[in-house]
From TrEMBL:
Residue span(s) of domain Orn/DAP/Arg decarboxylase 2 C-terminal: 31-385
PROSITE patterns from the UniProt entry: ODR_DC_2_1
Binding site for pyridoxal 5'-phosphate: 245, 287-290, 387
Pfam family, one: Orn_DAP_Arg_deC
Protein name: Diaminopimelate decarboxylase
Leader sequence residues: none
E.C. number(s) listed in UniProt: 4.1.1.20
NCBIfam families reported in the protein's UniProt record: lysA (TIGR01048)
Cofactor(s), by name: pyridoxal 5'-phosphate
Length: 431
């Protein structure tokens, strides 16, 4: 069910490397990524478009997990990159990512961020609000430069996911609303800035979505707007960006569909709509984040204290928690795990996995089936590749864990474990 194997010692193997050796060599908590799986996920989107012979761009949403090594792999696979902040853009530049393949998002891009995007000649800015149109127009005029942009719109589609990661509904902080005429107004405003090359529309309906129908409804709504602009303004888009949000498997509750199915369904819908509206087939862009890295990452922890409340529950505590995986505490997200040094043993009981932060809510997994467990066993939590490291914090002054990439049976440290000097490095004395 998770894409990993068990070796003859009964240990979990990640990318052909024994998880217990990884824990011993690099310490815990440790994020481990199977790079061949990252490549496979990335290719499944790209190949599906190629197979259909459709002009497309697949941008990895780097918010899911951004580090220099990660972006190097994404570049090797020929994807584009979606950044949402100066920090993500900076990381991309440090990784040597080709700037023309970078797209920038954000609902409150600062002057400095836009300035940096212009200076770096990035490929596209996804405009989110009126303030930003004026700011970008002004900055481009000042520097006598031009920029490709997309307009982010909210199609008013509910995406059947957690409220915090639902973004395509009408009451959203992101983008221009279609229903109340804001997108029309934005269209008119864009005409005032010849330096802004308006390439088309963007929408992202949410995250961890499993059905294609929501994406199809969003596409239909976007085309209704485009048909109007064609009629009234003789405008036809070159690009249609349908965002990310493709769901992955965390537990047996989720049954993801193969990623190419999204590509097939969307291409078919875009073809159908553009024929009906007599609009030339636009380039189709997508922005998967979680779908590319989510299932490729595993977090290794060492089990420490254990507490049994007879008749109620058994707790086992690990050496990390909400500081390296905020998702259970923030979204009630569920995970599966195995005892990595006993991966061949049959579970005999259930335990609940606690993090070590000073918060009752710092629970990683409730009621996890396990074999007999002991202190110093290694727990491997699956599907932590997306929004784990990227949402890690220093709460309780924890140092951020290391990240290791595994490929072809070799492990390589790609993000160092923070030291306590790192944790206090910006603190200044008051004495
Ligand atoms: N494009 C845009 C404009 C987005 O806002 C997002 C995610 C993506 C693409 C990528 O979505 P993905 O393919 O990864 O689902 N921290 C949350 C997820 C927040 C997603 C925010 N936007 C979580 O851990 O579930």
């Amino acid at each position: 069910r998770h894409p990993f194997t068990v070796n003859s010692h009964g240990h979990l193997e990640i990318g052909g490397v024994d998880a217990i050796n990884l824990a011993n060599d690099f310490g815990t908590p440790l994020y481990v990524y199977d790079v061949s799986l990252i490549r496979k996920n990335a290719r499944s989107f790209v190949d599906a478009f190629e197979e259909l012979g459709v002009k497309a761009k697949v941008a990895y949403a780097s918010k899911a997990f951004s580090s220099i090594a990660m972006l190097q792999v994404i570049q090797q696979e020929g994807l584009c990159l979606d950044v949402v902040s100066e920090g993500e853009l900076y990381t991309a530049i440090e990784a040597g990512f080709p700037s023309e393949r970078i797209h920038m998002h954000g609902n409150n891009k600062s002057r400095q961020e836009l300035q940096m995007a212009i200076e770096q000649n990035i490929g596209c800015i996804v405009l989110d609000n009126f303030y930003e149109i004026e700011l970008l127009g002004e900055l481009l005029n000042l520097q006598n430069k031009e920029m490709d942009v997309l307009m982010r719109v909210t199609p008013g589609v509910n995406s059947k996911t957690h409220q915090y990661i639902m973004t395509g509904n009408e009451d959203s902080k992101f983008g221009f609303n279609l229903k109340n005429g804001q997108a029309d107004e934005a269209f008119q405003l864009l005409k005032k800035y010849p330096s802004i090359r308006f390439k088309g529309l963007h929408c992202h309906i949410g995250s961890q979505i499993f059905e294609t129908d929501r994406f199809l409804s969003a596409t239909e709504i976007l085309f209704a707007e485009l048909a109007k602009w064609k009629r009234n303004e003789n405008y036809t888009p070159e690009v249609l960006n349908l965002g990310g949000g493709f769901g992955i498997r965390y537990t047996s509750e989720e049954e993801p569909i193969p990623y190419e199915q999204y590509v097939y369904a969307l291409v078919e819908e875009v073809r159908k709509q553009s024929e009906e509206m007599d609009i030339p087939l636009p380039e189709i862009w997508m922005e998967p984040g979680r779908a590319i890295v989510g299932n490729t990452g595993v977090t290794l922890y060492t089990i420490g204290s254990m507490k049994s409340i007879p008749g109620i529950r058994e707790y086992i505590s690990v050496d990390g928690g909400m500081t390296d995986n905020l998702r259970p505490a923030l979204y009630g997200a569920k995970y599966e795990a195995v005892v990595a040094n006993k991966a061949d043993q049959t579970p005999i009981k259930e335990v609940s996995v606690a993090g070590k932060c000073c918060e009752s809510g710092d629970m990683l997994i409730w009621d996890l089936p396990v074999p007999e467990v002991q202190t110093n066993d290694v727990l491997a939590v699956f599907s932590t590749g997306a929004y784990g490291y990227s949402m890690a914090s220093h709460y309780n002054r924890f140092a951020k864990p290391a990240v290791v990439f595994v490929e072809n049976k070799k492990a390589k440290l790609v993000v160092k474990r923070e030291s306590y000097q790192d944790v206090v490095k910006n603190d200044l004395s008051y004495l």
